[in-house]
Amino acid sequence: MKTKDINNLKDIAGEENIILSEEERHCYSYDSTRLEYMPDVVVKARNTQQISDIFKYASAEKIPVTPRGAATGLSGGCLAMEGGILMLMVEMDKILDVNPVDLLIDVEAGIITVDVDKEANKYGLFYPPDPGSLKYSTIGGNIAENAGGLRGLKYGVTKDYVNALEAVLPNGDIVNFGTRTVKGVTGYNMVDLITGSEGTLAVITKATLGLLPEPPSKASLLALFSTIEDAAKAVRDIVSNGVITSTLEIIDRVTINAIEDYLRFGLNRNIGAMLLIEVDGQQGAVDAEAKVIMKVCKSNEAISCKQAASDKERDEIWAARRAALSSLARVKPSTILEDATVPRSKIVEMVEAVNDIAKKYDLTIGTFGHAGDGNLHPTILTDMRDAGEEKKVESAVEEMFKAAVGLGGTLSGEHGIGISKAKYLKMEIDPASYELMKRIKKAFDPDNILNPGKMFLD
Ligand SMILES: Cc1cc2nc3c(=O)[nH]c(=O)nc-3n(C[C@H](O)[C@H](O)[C@H](O)COP(=O)(O)OP(=O)(O)OC[C@H]3O[C@@H](n4cnc5c(N)ncnc54)[C@H](O)[C@@H]3O)c2cc1C
Question: Which of 26, 104, 203, 329 is the most buried (most CB within 10 A)?
């Protein structure tokens, strides 16, 4: 970037909000993938007007701008692929209003996900979307990726809780989409278009999010199986027996061992897989659903299925699940995490496909994830510095995507396309839809300055 542009940015954004040193920019050159791109300058976003002014300048000068939340993203979305400005959103982290009657909370986009939930808890409410990264990720990043979470099966994903948004377009215009009402059908549904747009259409500055009353009662269950196939069959059967669990997570043997090596929760290392299940609601319903789950697990050859006896035991079950990815990441130098997703009825076939691919390419794959949503995270543990390994991994990943799409599923259930999956997009999206998506991008961002290089390769 030219010195003139840096000086002008200092005037527009405030000199105290500009980060230029190479050392510091380096800290903002990566996210939770293994990719790295160095921005020319990092700008701390402070308020909507400042962001609008930055965009007016950037669009006039054709300078790329990449929004960044907490960088927990798993598809490279917040990396400044073409240099330019990295727009850091984490300073905009205020709670603006809570309305317990309308069940709404207004927040700035840089707030950390768990802080929204904590604020809601003060009113006997909760914010249902709970990605595994909720202690670090921002609401802006969650909306941009349409993040899912452990409670997705019963409560849905981020898009189900975004009522309204304030955002800044690449030309600097400030827009407000959505309503504060339960119903609202005026004009196109722009909230849903921005949600999941991976920071390629607009920068989200504020959000009005939906909340729910906290359920009066919960039960957590842990079911152990000799094989992951039996666990997958139980997942399918729990739902077809009429129980919509709030959480239905799977962890396989490779992942269990990685968690035990790291944190020693005392999990059984010799089983094939375990299911972590939670039901919530009125006490009577919770008890009845827990009974059905135990029966279904037993009829699918569970070695055991028991309810957590105390809050401490329950918290340990969920702490183990949340540690899955960080535990796997310690095993080998490279961790290639995928999130191909299939309809729940095809979960058994997808588990079998992943096992076959692991055998075919002689790779160690740890599988965990939101099994109730058909959203598995097969994670290849490897060393991508080895050229032979890299080739094997690429072929294995492509086969996983083909298997998921072939089973009526999708390339990404929650992590997005970003850089990592751009080359596979046409595997799922038909040519006419692909061209329409590109025209939508052009309508928002005619000069392609907002987050260039993501989602579309051409
Ligand atoms: C341990 C771990 C567990 C995870 N578990 C889950 C999970 O259970 N479910 C799930 O869905 N994901 C999960 N993720 C992935 C990640 O946490 C989510 O994608 C999350 O939504 C990213 O939020 P972020 O604030 O870190 O965004 P970033 O990584 O900083 O950015 C992600 C994308 O959002 C864009 N963006 C960020 N802020 C804004 C904004 N204000 N306006 C417009 N665009 C913006 C960026 O440009 C980028 O494209 C996990 C990641 C890790 C490391």
Answer: 203
Quote the CA–CA distance of 194 and 204 in Å, as a whole number: 8
Residues 6+ apart with CB under 8 A from 295: none
pLDDT reading at 316 higher than 90: no
Distance 391 CA to ligand 1 centre (A): 27
pLDDT value at residue 174: 98
User: Ligand 1 atom closest to Cα of 77?
Assistant: 49
Q: pLDDT digit string (tens) for 224-265?
A: 999 999 999 999 999 999 999 999 999 999 999 999 999 999
- Tell me the CATH number of domain 3-88, given options 3.40.50.300, 3.30.43.10, 2.40.37.10, 3.40.50.620: 3.30.43.10
Amino acid occupying residue 203: V
Which CATH architecture describes the domain 95-213? 2-Layer Sandwich (3.30)
**Angle at alpha carbon of residue 419, lines to 148 and 135, rounded to 5°:** 35
Q: Atom 21 in ligand 1: which residue has the minimum CA distance?
A: 142
pLDDT tens profile 373-422: 999 999 999 998 998 999 999 999 999 999 999 999 999 999 999 999 99
Residue nearest to atom 16 of ligand 1 (CA): 73
- List ligand 1's pocket residues with C-beta within 6 A: 31-32, 66-74, 77-78, 89, 109, 131-133, 137-138, 140-142, 144-145, 147-149, 198-199, 203-204, 325-326, 414-415, 451
Question: What confidence score (pLDDT) does residue 257 get?
Answer: 96
Distance in Å, CA 131 to ligand 1 centroid: 9
**How far is 128 from 130, CA to CA, in rounded Å?**
6
Q: Rounded to whole angstroms, how far apart are CA atoms 236 and 296?
A: 10
- Structure confidence at residue 359 (pLDDT): 96
